[in-house]
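Feature request, filed as a ticket because there's no other form

It would be nice if the structure record came with a short human-readable summary line next to the tokens. Right now we just get the raw output. Example of a typical job, pasted below so the devs can see what we mean:
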Amino acid sequence: MEINGVNRNLQQLSSGKRINSASDDAAGSQIVERMSSEINSNSVYISNSLNSVNYINTANSVLDNINNDAMRIRELTIQSGNGIYSVSDKRAIQNEINQLQGNINDIISNSEFNGKPIFQGIQSQISNDNSIEISPTIDNLIDIDVNDPESMQKIDDFLESVRMEQSELGAQANVIDRNVDNLMNKNVNESSARSRIEDLDYAKASSNRSIQEVQENIKLNIQNMENKQKGNLVDLLI
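Raw output as currently delivered:
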């Protein structure tokens, strides 16, 4: 067997791969490269998807905080309707409501994910042919006045908008989760297929190496015999 074949076999045994360069298997090498490219791309899409889920979780946490403050405003609004409270009592209730409104609006304005405002939304490429836009939107809560009979409806409408945003985020999280499962399954299948093409059959390679060694020994013995015969011929001629 040629020296190049011996070197190739040794390289294969060392690397554990049947294909180490295009010269080992040109067609197989191209297939392996395409599979590797797809596996790498899918890994990036998985990373994008997981970042999107982290964004959704952060947005949900922010909405939970907003919901808690809004629920407290609703309780205070109901409480203020109790006839036992004096004007100063209602003023104190209104002051707390105003603080909670301010807190809600600050959260809406200032909440961020990785330096990006939560309520500006993001768009993420989660697969080769699919991107998802995640854009939770919530309006500021203003003008909740304990003396305004419409305040209860305002706060109920606001709470409903928070619930709708969280429901939409949950649905998008489910879509992304299914997408990640799909990509991971693809990568498992692609990796398995790539291994069947690229990886070395150790038993076969070891057998080939044994054959090579036998062939090398045969060639060496033949060479020695030829050299000996030449030596004997020279002796006869002297």
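Something like this underneath would help us a lot:
The radius of gyration is 37 Å.
The beta strands are 112-113, 116-117, 122-127, 130-134.
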